[in-house]
Design a protein that fits this description.
With about 650 residues, the protein is of the alpha/beta class. Helices cover about 45% and strands about 15% of the residues.
Length: about 650
C-alpha cells in the first residue's frame, strides 16, 4: 500500500475515529439540533434568555436518546463503510429517543423541574438530527471513496450485472486494498446500455467496449464468475482487449489446490492466461457421488508425483479415504507430495513410497501391506520423442509396469483398477502411443477373463483416455512461456498441427468419475471440446505477453508425431454414459490368453532384441500402429516398397 493510501486508510479508520468519538459527535448533533429546534419554535431571544435551563433539559433528553443508540449500535460501524442499514438504524434509534421523551414528559411531569419541550420541538429536533447524522456519514463515505479512488492504480469495468457482478463492484468500492477504481459495467443485454447501476453507467458488449475503455482511460476488465464462459466464447472481444493492452482479470473456474482467496470479493481475481481462453466448456462432475465411493477406502496411486497423479492424489485425499498410498520413482517431487499431504490433510494416513512399478517383488509386498481397494494407475513414460528413441524402456515401464500392477490388483482382491491412458493410443503413430494401447489391451482382456471365469478374481478394470492436459510437465504452454520470456523464437513443429486440451483438474475429476462409476472392461473417452491450432495458441500467448518482435519458427514434425490427434479409432463407436462428457469406446476385443502371450514375449524381447525388433513385435500386437516421421516406418512398407 502506498504511503498516501496508508494515511488515508488510517484517517478514516476506527483508530482515528473510535466508537466514543462517533458517539460524542452524535450527541453534539442532538444537542445542537435541540437548541435550534427550540429557537425555531420560540424565537432566538427567548432561547438565549433561558439557555442554561434549556441545556439541562436537553442533557436529560440525550440520556433517553442514548438508550436508542445503544439498542441499535449506531456508533459501532465504520463510518467510511456506512450503508443504508446504518442510516436505518440511526432513524430507529432517534425514534426510540423521541418516544421515550414523550412518555417521560407525559407521565413523569418533567415540566415541574425542567423547561418543557413541546412534541413539535421534539419532532423537529429528531428530524434535524437524523438528517445531519445521515449527511455526516454519507459525506465521510464519499470523501473517503473519492480520496482513495484517486490513488488507485487501475480504472476498471465489471463484466456482468447479475448478483456476482454487483457483489464484485461493491467489494471493490468498500475495500481499502482494492487497486481498482470502478468506472462502470459491461453487459450482454443491449437494452441495459445507457442505464446506471450503483451510480455507474452500463455499456453493451456489442457497442465496441474497447473503444469506450480506451477513450475513458480504463485499463482493466474485471470478469464476474458467471461471465467467464461468455468471455471465452467471444474471440473478437478477447482479441481486441488483448491488442489494446487492456488487462483481463477473472475468477478461476477450477480452484487451485490450497487456494484461500476470497471467493466473494475481488481477492480471488487473477490475470487471465491463455488456458482460460481456450474454446472449451467448463466440466461439472458430481464430486459428492465420487466421494461416497472412495470415502473410508484404501487407495493406491501410481505415478503419484506426476502432473495427473499428483492432482488425482489431492482430489482423493479430500474424500477422506482410510489410507492413501502414493507410489512414484521420482524422489524429489514425491517428497513435495509428502509435504503437501502433511500440511493439508494432517489427519490422513498417507504413505509416500519410492518404488519402481516394474519390480514385482517390491510391488507385491506393498499390495500385501496396504490391501488397496482402488488402484489409480497413472505411472507412465509419456514423452513421444524420448520413447521413440527408447522403445525398450517404453515397453518395460509402460507395458510391463501395467501388467505387474494389474496382476497384483487381481491377486490381492482390489475392487477397481483405473488406468490412465491417452488419445495417442488411437491409431498410434509412435512408440509411446502404441505402448499405451497395449496396456489397454492387457487390462481389458484381463477384465474379460475375470468375468468369464478364466481368471479367478473380482477386480474391475477401467481405462480412461484423454488428450493433452494444460500445464502438465513438458506440455507446450510452459515451453512457449519460457521461449517468450527469453525473447523467442517460439518453436512450433508445423503450421497445421492441432491438439485437444483439457485442464488437469478437469481431466482428473473425469478420471475419478469414470473410474468409480464404471463396471469394468470399459474404455472411457472424454469429450475434449474443440481442437486448437498450436500456431494460433502461440500467437495469442505472444500477444498476451506484450512482447514485441517475437518470431514463430516452424521446426518440422518430430519423430512419431502426427498432425491430427484422434480420440477414437476409425472402427470404433461410442456409447453414452452417466456423464455427457464421457463416452464408452467400443474397441476390438482380444482373448486374454493371446494378449498375455504376445505381451509376455514382447516384454521378454526387451532384454535382448534391437529397437527395430521390439517395434516390429509391437506392430504385431497393434496392427493399426503405423509409424510417422520415424525410422520404424520401414516396418510399415509393403514388400514392393522396400528398396
Amino acid at each position: 500500500m502506498k504511503p498516501f493510501e496508508k494515511l488515508t486508510s488510517w484517517y478514516f479508520s476506527r483508530r482515528a475515529l473510535p466508537y466514543w468519538s462517533v458517539l460524542f459527535i452524535d450527541v453534539m448533533v442532538l444537542l445542537a439540533c435541540g437548541l435550534i429546534a427550540f429557537a425555531v419554535e420560540h424565537g432566538t431571544l427567548f432561547t438565549l434568555t433561558h439557555f442554561f435551563p434549556l441545556l439541562g433539559t436537553e442533557c436529560v433528553y440525550i440520556v433517553l436518546y442514548l438508550v436508542g443508540f445503544r439498542l441499535f449500535h449506531t456508533y459501532s460501524g465504520v463510518i467510511r463503510f456506512s450503508s443504508f442499514i446504518d442510516l436505518w438504524r440511526i432513524g430507529l434509534a432517534i425514534s426510540v429517543g423521541v418516544c421515550l421523551a414523550l412518555i417521560c414528559e407525559q407521565f413523569l411531569g418533567f415540566d415541574r423541574f425542567l423547561m418543557p419541550l413541546t412534541p413539535a420541538d421534539l419532532l423537529l429536533q429528531a428530524v434535524m438530527a437524523a438528517a445531519v447524522m445521515w449527511t455526516v456519514r454519507i459525506w465521510v463515505k464519499t470523501l473517503y471513496e473519492d480520496t482513495l479512488k484517486r490513488n488507485r492504480s487501475h480504472r476498471a469495468l465489471v463484466y456482468g450485472v447479475q448478483d456476482d457482478g454487483i457483489a464484485l463492484a461493491k467489494s471493490i468500492n468498500n475495500s481499502d486494498r482494492s487497486p481498482y477504481q470502478l468506472y462502470g459495467f459491461l453487459a450482454d443485454n443491449d437494452s441495459l446500455n445507457g442505464h446506471m447501476l450503483l451510480g455507474h453507467p452500463i455499456y453493451s458488449v456489442h457497442q465496441d467496449p474497447v473503444d469506450i475503455m480506451t477513450r475513458r482511460g480504463i485499463d482493466t476488465l474485471l470478469v464476474s464468475r458467471h461471465k467467464t464462459k461468455a468471455l471465452r466464447s467471444n474471440d473478437k472481444l478477447v482479441n481486441s482487449l488483448i491488442s489494446a493492452g487492456i488487462k483481463i482479470m477473472i475468477f478461476p473456474q477450477i480452484r487451485e489446490m490450497g487456494s484461500n482467496d476470497d471467493e466473494n470479493g475481488f481477492g480471488g481475481l487473477r490475470e487471465v492466461n491463455v488456458e482460460d481462453l481456450l474454446p472449451r466448456d467448463e466440466i461439472e462432475v458430481d464430486m459428492d457421488k465420487i466421494g461416497s465411493q472412495l470415502r473410508g477406502r484404501s487407495i493406491l496411486v501410481t505415478g503419484a508425483a506426476g502432473s495427473i497423479g499428483s492432482e488425482l492424489s489431492s482430489l482423493i485425499a479430500g474424500f477422506a479415504p482410510s489410507r492413501l498410498v502414493l507410489i512414484d520413482q521420482a524422489e524429489t517431487p514425491l517428497h513435495d507430495m509428502r509435504l503437501l499431504m502433511q500440511k493439508q490433510w494432517p489427519d490422513l494416513e498417507a504413505h509416500t513410497i519410492v518404488a519402481d512399478i516394474t519390480n514385482a517383488v517390491r510391488m507385491d509386498s506393498l499390495f500385501e501391506r496396504f490391501k488397496p481397494e482402488y488402484v489409480f494407475h497413472a505411472a507412465a513414460y509419456k514423452h513421444v520423442p524420448m520413447m521413440e528413441d527408447n522403445p525398450s524402456e517404453s515397453v518395460a515401464n509402460n507395458v510391463q509396469g501395467t501388467r505387474v500392477v494389474a496382476d497384483l490388483a487381481v491377486k490381492h482382491g482390489t475392487r477397481k483398477f483405473v488406468m490412465v491412458s491417452t488419445d495417442k493410443a488411437v491409431n498410434p503413430t509412435n512408440v509411446m502411443g502404441c505402448s499405451k494401447r497395449i496396456c489397454e489391451i492387457y487390462v481389458q482382456s484381463l477384465d474379460s477373463a475375470i468375468k468369464s471365469g478364466q481368471v479367478k478374481g473380482r477386480t474391475g478394470f477401467v481405462t480412461t483416455r484423454f488428450g493433452n492436459v494444460l500445464g502438465s510437465n513438458g506440455s507446450v504452454i510452459p515451453l512457449f512461456k519460457e521461449q517468450i520470456k527469453a525473447g523467442g523464437p517460439v518453436t512450433v513443429t508445423h503450421p497445421e498441427i492441432i491438439r485437444f486440451f483439457m485442464l488437469i483438474p478437469e481431466a482428473c475429476k473425469l478420471v475419478l468419475e469414470a473410474g468409480t462409476m464404471g463396471n469394468g472392461g470399459e474404455i472411457f473417452v472424454f469429450d475434449m471440446g474443440k481442437p486448437v491450432r498450436i500456431v494460433d495458441l502461440a500467437r495469442r500467448m505472444i500477444t498476451m505477453s506484450g512482447a514485441k518482435d517475437i518470431e514463430i519458427c516452424f521446426t518440422g514434425l518430430r519423430d512419431g508425431e502426427k498432425l491430427y490427434e484422434e480420440v477414437l479409432n476409425d472402427k470404433e463407436v461410442t456409447l453414452p454414459t452417466f456423464h455427457p462428457k464421457i463416452k464408452i469406446a467400443r474397441v476390438r476385443s482380444y482373448a486374454y490368453s493371446d494378449a498375455s502371450r504376445l505381451i509376455g514375449e514382447l516384454i521378454d524381447a526387451c532384454a535382448f532384441a534391437s529397437d527395430m525388433e521390439i517395434v516390429r513385435r509391437m506392430k504385431e500386437i497393434v496392427p493399426e500402429f503405423h509409424s510417422q516421421h520415424s525410422p520404424y516406418e520401414i516396418l510399415d512398407a509393403k514388400p514392393g516398397q522396400l528398396n
